[in-house]
Every structure is written in C-alpha cells, then in structure tokens.
Amino acid sequence: MKRLAIFKRAFKDLFNIGKRYYTLFFIQSIARSSLPFIGFIYMTLIVDALTRNDLTAIPSLIVQFLSILFVLQLIAGWLEPLVTNEESLLLRKLFAEPNKKMLTMHYHYAESSEVREQLELINRNMMSSQSSLPMINVRVHEMTPKLISIIWGIILLSPLFSINTTSLPDGFWWMHPGFIILVFLILIAISVVIQVTISKKSGKRLTAMLAELKQSNATFFYEYGILNDTQSGKEIRLYKLTDKMIKNKQADSDYTRKLLTENYKRFRAMMVPMTGLFQIMTYLTYAYVGLLVLFGALPVALIIQLSSALSQMVSALPDVIQHGMMMISSPNELEEYYRFMDLPDEEVVGSLPVEKRLDNEYHFAIKNMSFAYPGSEEAVLKNITESFEVGKKYAIVGENGSGKTTFIKLLTRLYEPTEGTIKMNKIDAKKYDLREYFNLFGVVFQDYHLVGFSLGQNVSVHPTFDHNKVMTTLDKVGLGDFVRKLPNQLDTYLGTEFDDSGQSVSGGQEQKLAIARSLYKDAPVMILDEPTAALDPITEFEIYQNFDNLVEDKTAFYISHRLSSSKFCDDILVFDKGEVIQRGTHKELVKEDGKYKDLWSAQAQYYQ
Amino acid sequence: MKEKVKYTKLLSKELYEFKPTVFIAILLATITGAALPLLQLLLSAFVIQWLLEGIAIQDYLINLLGFIVLIGIAQMGQHYFMIYVEENKNHFRDFMRNKIQKKYLTLDYPLIIGKEAQERYNNASQLTDNNETLFGRLVMETIELFSSFVGVLLYINILSQLESLFLILVAVFLLIVVVFNVWQVKMDKSLFSAKAANTQKLRYLRNVYGESRITKDVRIFQMQSWFKQVEDQTIDDYHAIHKSKVKLTWTESSLVNMGIIGLSALSYIRSVQLIATGVIPVSSFVVFAGSVTILAQTIITFINALGKMNTSLNETKKYDHFMSQGEVFNHKEGKALPDKAISIELRNVSYTYPNTDQPTIKNVSLTISPYENLAIVGENGAGKSTLTNLIAGLLKPDSGEIYINGIPQSEFNISEYYSLFAPVFQEKFLLTYSIKETIIQGLLFDEMKYKRVLKLSGMTDIISRFKTKDETKIVRAVYPDGVNLSGGQLQKLKLAQALYKDAPVLLLDEPTAALDPIAEHQIYQDYFHFSKDKLSIFISHRLSSTRFCDRIIYLKHGEITEVGTHDELMSNQQNYYNLYEAQAYYYKHDKEEVETEDEQIATGGVI
User: Fold this and answer.
1) Number of domains in chain A
2) How far apart are CA A314 and CA A153, in angstroms?
3) Whole domain around residue A136: which residue ranges?
C-alpha cells in the first residue's frame, strides 16, 4: 500500500514538473500511434471494395484516408521539436530537484555530512536506479504508445464478435470466436506469466548487477573528476602512478564487461522462446482468420485488420509489462529519494517582524546559551552569557575548534541554541520571522562562495541592481577601478564556469567582492569570519587597514585565529573549548596571564 | 573528402582492433533488417491471394506454416544480431574510453595543461560519454545506414514496377529530404555554441544548488529567488535559441508529409487502376500500398543516417587530434642518474605558458648545491610553482637548460628523471584508496622501508586507531565505509608518501597553505628534520616558515630579484623585507605601540 502511494506520488511529481511536456507528448503519441491502425482500417476497406469490384467507393476512401493520414502526421511532426525541447528541459529539472532541495531544507541538514552523502547517493541513483524519477519518465515514454496500440487493437478486433457463427460447418464448433478468444487470452496470459517471471528475474539480476557495478562506477566518477584537475597529473607522474592506474582501469573495465556479457547472454537465451511464442501466435491468428474467411464467415479483406491488430497487441503487451515491471523494481531507492526530499524545510517558527530602525539600534543579549550539534552529545558551546552593544567592533579569537564559527551560526540563527536564549532588543530571537532576522546580518564567511553570474548581481544578490550603489560599494572595497576597466563592467560574468565570456579574478578580488556583497546588503551587523585566511600577506594587510572604513558605525564581529587582527577591535572575546574565558581590550588581555597572552606570544614569536 | 576517407579508415581500424566479428554482425543485421518488413508485406499479400483463390484448408495451413517459419527464422536472426551488436556497442565505447584515458595518463605533462590541452582531452573523451556520442552510436549508425540504403533500393525497385513515374517522384522527394537535412545540419552548427552555452548555464545552476560551500550564504543572503529568476531567464533563452530550429522543423515536416501523401496517392491510384484492368491481382495492392509507406520512411532514415555519418566522420577528427599527440620529453634510454650529492643548475631558463603573452619565468639562472635547503618566496603569481615544475621535469623550458650534476635534463629518460624528486603539493589528491597504497604509490613495496616510514612520519599512531590498520580506505566517495582523514592526518600521510619515495630531492610546494602559521611552522620543522641529507626546495608565502632555510630567493614577475639568508635579505630592505614586514606588522607594532596608543590603524593602507 505504502509502495503504491509512493509511486503515485512519483507520477504526480513527474506530471507536475513536466506538465507541458506530458500534455504535448500525449497528444503526439495519440496521433503517431494511431497512424498504423488508421492504415489497417482503410486498407481493409479498400481491399474489401476491390474484392467486391466496387470501384466507385474507392476514390473517396483514398481521399479520406490520405487526409486523415496527412493531419495526423502533421500533428506528430509539428509537435516533435516541441516535445524534444520540453523533454530535455524536464530531464534537467528532474536532475536538479535533489540539489534544489539543499537550498530550502533546514540548515543543519544541509550542513550535515550524512545528508551530503545521501545527496550524492541519490544523484547517482538518478542515473542507475530503475525507479528514479528520470527512469520512470523513460518508462512512461516507452509505455504510452504501446498502451495506445493495445486500445486500438481491442477496437479493431471487434468484428470478430459479429461473426455469423451459423455459417461454420459442423464439427468446427471450436471456431466460435468466444472460444478462440478464450484460447488467445490463455496464450497471452501464459506469455504474460512468462514475461513477468522473466522480467522479475532479470530485473533482480539487473539490480544485483548495478549494485555490483556501484563500486566501479563510483571509482570511475571519482577518478574522472580528479583527472580533470590537471594538478593531479603532477603527482601521478612524479609518483609513477600511471601504470598502476591504467592497470586498475583495465581490471575494472574487464570486470564490468564480464558482468554485462553475462547479462546479455541471458537476454539472448530469453529471446528464442519469446520470438517462438510470438510466431506461434501470428500463425494461429492467420490460420484462424483464414479459416473463417474460407468458411465464408468473414470477408477476405478483414484478414488485414484482424491479423494486424492482433499482432500489434501481441507485441505491445509484453513490452508494456516489461517496462512496468522495471519501473517498480526498486521501490526502496524511490523511498530513499522521498525520505531525502521530505527532510524538513527551514521552519518559519517566528512571525514577529523585525523593526526597521534607521539608527541601527539592535542590541543582542545572550543568556546561558549552550549548544550541541544535532545527533551529538558533545557540547560545542557551554553556558555563554554575553551582551553586545550597538556600533562596537568585537573580535572573537581562539584556537581551531573552540566554537567561534558555531557561535556565529547561532547568533545568526542558522542553528537554534540547545539551551538558553538569544535576545534581540529584549525579545527572544526565535520569535522573529527568520527571513527578516537574516536580513540583520551581512556575513563574510570563511568559506564564502560567489557564483558565476555577473559581478553586479554577485554584489546585489539579485537579478537587477542599483548601478550606482554597487559601484560605490565596490569603490569602498577598492575594486571600483578594476571593474570600470572591464569591457562589460558590472555585467561581466565572474569566472568562466557559468558563461565562457566571463572574467576570472584573483583570490583577493573574490574576497573583496564577498565583502562588497555584505556591505551592499547594508545590514546593521557585519560579521567577518576569517576573511583573510586565503590571502597573500599584502592583501591581508590592506583589508586590516581598511576595516574601520568598511564597517563604519555598524556593529561588527571579527573572527580570526590570527590575533594580529584583534588589535583594532573594541572588545575581544576569547573562546576556549566552547566557553568565553576572557573578555576585554587587547591591551588589557595581553597584560593578564591567560589564554590570550599565550596565543599572542605563540604567534608573535615567529615575527620577532 | 580525403579527410573523410582517412577517418573512415581510422574508425574501421578501431572497430577491427576491438573485435573483427562485429563486421559480420553488422552485415547480417543489415540484411535481415532490410528483408523483414518486405517478408511481412508479402505474407499478407500471399494470404489474401490464397484466400481469394479459395485454397483448400489443408494447403492453406501448410503454406502459411512454411511462410511463418521463414519469417520466424529471419526474426530470430535479426534479434540475435541486434542483441550482439547492442552488447558490443557498449563494450566498444568502453574500449575507446580506456584507450583515451590511457593516452591521457601517459601524455607528457606539458600536453595536459592549459585550456587548449584540456579542450583536446575533453573533446576526445566526450565522444565516449553515452550512447548518443560518436563511439556509443557508431555501430548502430552503420547498421542503420546500410540497411536503409538496401531498403531504399529494394522498395524503389518494387514500386517502379508499378509506374515509372515513381522514379521521378522519389527523386523529388529525396531532394526535399536532402535539402532539409543539409539545412538542419547547418542550423545545428550555427546554434551549437549558443546551445552549449545554455546547457552549461543550466548545468552550472544545478551544481550551485548542491554546492556545500554556499549553504550558509544562500540562507543569510536569501539567494533562492535570485537563482529562480536566473533559471527562468536561462530557460526562456533556451526556447529563444531553439525557436528558429522549431520553425525549420515545422516547414520540413509539412513539405515532407506532402511528399509522402503524394507518393502514396500515386501508388494507390495506379495500383487500383491496374487491379481494375486486371493487370495485377488484388492482393498486390497490399504490397504496393505498404511499400510506399516503408519507402518514404526508409528514405528519411537513409538521408538522416547519411548526415549523421558525415557528422561522425567530422567528429573523428577530435579523436585523431588527441590520440596523435607526440612526446615532449625524452622517453628513450637516457644517461645514468646520479643518486647522491645532487646539484641542480638552471642556466637562463625561460618559460611561457601556452596562450599567455607574458613569460612566467624570465631568464632565471640559479645553482643549488648538494644538500642545500632553498626557499623560494614571493607574492602569488610570481612563478614559484612554475619554477619547481621546471626543475622537476613537469614542464620544459622554452629556452635555457637545467643541469643535474652537469648533465642536461633532456639527456635523462624522463620517467627515470622523475625518481629524483619527492614532491608534496598544496592540493591533496587521493588517487589510491588505502593508506598503504597511498604511501607506496607506484613504487615497489619494501617492507622494511615501509615500516620505518610509518614510524618516522607518525603514521603508526594514526593507523593504530583504525580497525583495518593500514588497509583502511580513505576515500569515502568510493568506499563509503572508509574514513575521512583530518587535515593534520593528511599532512602526515603525504609526508610519509614523500619519505617512502626517498628521493634525493625534496620539493615542498606550499603544502600547508590552508593551515594557520603555527601548525605550518611545525610541519616545516618536520620537513627540515628529514631534509638533512637531501637537496630540498621549500615554497611558502608565509615567511615565518621559510626563514630558517640555508638560502632564500625572492621571485618577482618570474625573475630572481633577491638571494641570500633571511638576515641578509632583511638588511637589504627590498621586496622580501616589505613582505615580511607586512606579515609581521601587527605582531611587531604591538610592542612598540604600547606607549604611542592607537591611531596606527585608522590611517594608511591602500585598497
């Protein structure tokens, strides 16, 4: 039952995502698959007229037939390019679905490595699982025309029921259509049973084979990705990996080939009885209809209609069954897909709008806040109580893993505290609308990421932007002149990943763009998380020097494990193992014995 | 034309090398493919004929049986060959992919770097991507071409018996189909780059959605609607790009269908006339009426197949270009390698990357004496890595020469030459999957040495924490039950790898750029410790790590501007001094500043 529901959901999703495609495709399939049957009908009518020597009826039959043919072919032909285009878009959309989910799910899922691995698996299954949405789409594509053929077949077989049974000679009672159809139904049932068992078996084998191939597929994709980065070529050559890799590849491919060959061997063995059965049914059809004709129970011409309709049905039915069986062969993987897609989205818990204040008077007070990552017992932050004033510059320092970045994630509500509260202007932060709350922060994360769209869009984070405001912001971070010199200025694409005409920029320029993006947002709180980690010393120096100009009168948090940066902040919080163990100005802290002093002298010594 | 012949030969050669029996399968599949539809038409015709003649029941059943057995055999043959071909089509693609990858792995390093080299490789490798690309579709395409060709001849032959006018009509029809085919190919060509750019955009968007580094930014900056609008725009562009193609296809479909209707009309009218006058039997109506539909379809298939084959031959060029690349370095027998007391000398070495106008290394001369610890420092993009790549024989100088103990680099066999160097790079690629394999790489296994290296590098400790010890897999993307090594553990692993190679020259190309200065300093101390009996070259932009080297060279815009020890360079007060001061600024000024109080920060500094 549950399985049925999940496939129902898959169909619903498919039709929703590909509404246009399916509408066009169904119309086209009806037109295209009806063509041969219209042909059988008219062929029968014309041959019938010919055998009766009724030549007067023929011209109008030919005209009718050719007109219908022309219309149906035109419909099919005109829809063809539209269907192709829509299908390729549908496929792109289907393949993007799981990735898109990453944008909306709750942050702590998006960040967890398990969910990441799940995503990778699901993306791989998209191509290899028989019950993934793209594969179900393929099956629907294959089954639709066959189903239409079966319906036509049933319609075309109807003359069998109007046979004049009295004209059958004695002793040929068994030629009664009711009986014969029963025989046929039994034969078809037998072939269906054979089909189903074989499909089930081969489906299982295929799944088993794909499971066996998973490893070598994963290896292939992994190595392919690494080889594409030419830097890896240096290690391969200097550590003499070439021969080893070629040998591994060959072994992998031999193994794959062996599995495939076995599979094809089974295919071939299956083919003999299936083709045989099909030919037997063809023989019986012709024999039976032929006999009816010879007994005068049917006009000669009907043999065209009846035998063609039967043989179409006989060939379409097993295909439909086979595709249907394949489609439902891996429900577990489909369930997995939906488990992933059902991960909760960013909850909209709070509803309180954030008060817009021109004076940027936003005050934060943290009380007894503790935090452990979901699914982990270990507290990353322990019982923190601090408050922050408007317009001050705070430095957050501490060793790797002391909880600095986690603290920022909580402050910005990417995570909710396990215990304790964060109050913004005396109201629990949880009560605010999450989107509006996010708008309070301009953050440059250590692992910030720009996208390949235009420079202007990257700063404004929107398809349209205020040209002057973007330029002023870029001037502030010192990129203005660089951008003005570019031929397309703000419309220049960033890097060549998205658009080949793009311009690659240096790491320093990227970092400055990321800072510009936060500034453009004009949020009351600026957070810079190790913004200079990837920079060469000269650029790092420039950014330090300009820090005050950048943040102006905003409240600012500056995180770094390089203490040199903490000197220009008003207040320093020293984190150690999830606790704030010291707080004060640089001058105060460097005088008192403690973590800060230790860290400071440890780093400074190399530069004395 | 000459090129087409050449590529036809090349493709045949590859197929033959893959499996000669494929040719026989192609031939048999062609024959059965062309004959089957005709046999089926004849079956209906004969049955009608027999029935009209009022054949005896027994004769009818026997005749019918004979015919159906014949069809059955043809059908089985057809199925058998098609499955055979289908199977080998996949194997062939795999075979070609291996060939290309093998070539890529054995190419000399300069031939794989740069945009053009990447393009050459990607172009060739894309030919094996799936069943729609050249090496996936080639076999099927050949069968389609041959059997449609045979079919066209067969059905024209049948229909021209009915009416010689057919030949002219068919010729006109053929012309229409050819003209549109050429048009379509032309349009595809003109749309190709726009389509590729559009596809690239959609693919890029998909990757961005799943990008782990962007999860935080997406939420804080609420990028979803931005992405949505860019995607919608890209899809609109997609439709706009395809619009002209759709229109052409509509015109084509209208004209071709008119042609089909014309041909059918002629065939129907003529055969009815002939039947009325008694020239041909009623049953042949089925054959003629059926043939005309099949002929029209076969002509379209044939012309398309011809067009596709033409494209395929053009695409073969990409394969040929990639595979026919030669060698850059000396792969013949070379001079014997010195194994102790290596000295390296660069004489007027210059190097320019392909497709750049500025040389990255300009006329550099440098001698590194045995067992020396040399640091190369400079700003990003100064050419530090390029210089080490030249020394390691990964790149070849455009001019000048590099000497090892007085022997020019080019006189050594390149793969022997590589055994002189043990490098550690910034990027930590894992191309082997277990800890053990990663340490040994492509070298021979030596138990004693391996054990020693484990101990020296501190890997013994790390290994002891895992259940499967040194067989533990470390690439989770391939072995989900493996472990993820931390940054520090990975550093140790790479150290072990370099130690195991035990080469006379140690190369460190910013292996610790992602670490903080303290951790970096410690790792450099490790390397200093192991480099006592080696010539070693250290690169870092953190001057605190390299200041203890025997000698430091400062590289600026591909030239050596300063040489000396840390103290010497500091007293020179040149670039090195400036760089060092910039890094030390806040640490140093603190001490002096205690009295002067703030002010320092607000001013100065240029962005």
Assistant:
1) 1
2) 9
3) 2-341
Spatial contact of B380 and A536, defined as CB atoms under 8 Å apart: yes
- Per the listing, tokens 């080889």 go with A227
Query: How does pLDDT run across B176-234, given as a tens digit for each residue?
Result: 888 988 888 888 888 888 888 888 888 888 888 887 778 888 888 888 888 888 889 88
Closest CB from A47, A268, A540 relative to B285: A47
Q: Is the pTM of this model over 0.90?
A: no
Cα(B585)–Cα(B591) distance, rounded to whole angstroms?
11
Q: Alpha-carbon distance B286 to B49, whole Å? A: 10
Distance CA A491, CA B418 (A): 46
Q: Which residues pair with B551 in a beta bridge?
A: B374
Helix (H) or strand (E) holding B263: helix B224-276
Is residue A558 situated within a structural domain?
no
If 0-12 CB within 10 Å is exposed, 13-18 middle and 19+ buried, where does residue B191 land? middle
Amino acid at B287: V
**pLDDT by residue (tens digit) across A388-436?**
877 788 888 777 677 878 888 888 888 888 888 888 887 877 778 777 7
Helix spans in A342-488 (H): 404-411, 434-438, 455-460, 467-477, 480-485
Tally C-beta pairs within 8 A across A and B.
391
- What does the DSSP 8-state code read for residue A432? B
Residues in chain B: 607
The answer for B 3-42 residues in CB contact with A (under 8 A) is none
Helices (H), A478-506: 480-485
- Residue B351 pLDDT more than 70? yes
d(CA B536, CA B528): 9
Beta strand extents in A121-274 (DSSP E only): none
Subunit contact B272:A264, Cβ cutoff 8 A: no
What is the domain-level CATH number for residue A273? 1.20.1560.10
Compute the distance between CA of residue B438 and CA of residue B461 in angstroms, rounded to an integer: 17
Identify the three-state secondary structure at position A430: helix
The DSSP letter of residue A451 is: -
Phi, psi of A524 (to 5 degrees): -70, -20
Torsion of CA B403, B408, B412, B418, to 10 degrees: 30
- Test B269 with A229 for CB contact under 8 angstroms: no
Cα separation, A60 vs B322, whole angstroms: 62
A-chain residue closest to B193, CA distance: A500
- Residue of chain B minimizing CA distance to A53: B276
d(CA A434, CA A313): 59
Task: Measure B440 CA to nearest chain A CA, in Å.
Answer: 9
What are the structural domains of chain B? 2-323 (1.20.1560.10), 344-429+503-589 (3.40.50.300)
The answer to whether the Cβ–Cβ distance between B394 and A238 falls below 8 Å is yes
- Euclidean distance between CA atoms B100 and B94, whole angstroms: 10
Provide, rounded to the nearest whole percent, the portion of chain B with pLDDT above 90: 23
Strand-pairing partners, residue B347, are: B401
Report the distance separating Cα B408 and Cα B330, nearest Å: 11
Residues A259, A261, A266, A268, Cα dihedral to 10°? 160
- Report long-range pairs for B168-172 (Cβ below 8 Å, ≥24 apart): B169/B262, B169/B263, B169/B266, B170/B263, B170/B295, B170/B299, B172/B259
B347 to chain A nearest CA, in Å? 23
Q: How far apart are CA B120 and CA B542, in angstroms?
A: 37
Q: What residues form DSSP beta bridges with A427? A: A424
Q: With contact defined as beta carbons under 8 Å apart, do A326 and A130 qualify?
A: yes
Bridge partners, A398 (sequence order):
A575
The 3-state DSSP class for residue A363 equals: coil
C-alpha angle A539-A544-A545 in degrees, rounded to nearest 5: 95
Residue A185 lies in a domain: yes
Structure tokens given for A157: 């077989």
Structural domain includes residue A218: yes
Q: Is residue A294 part of a domain?
A: yes
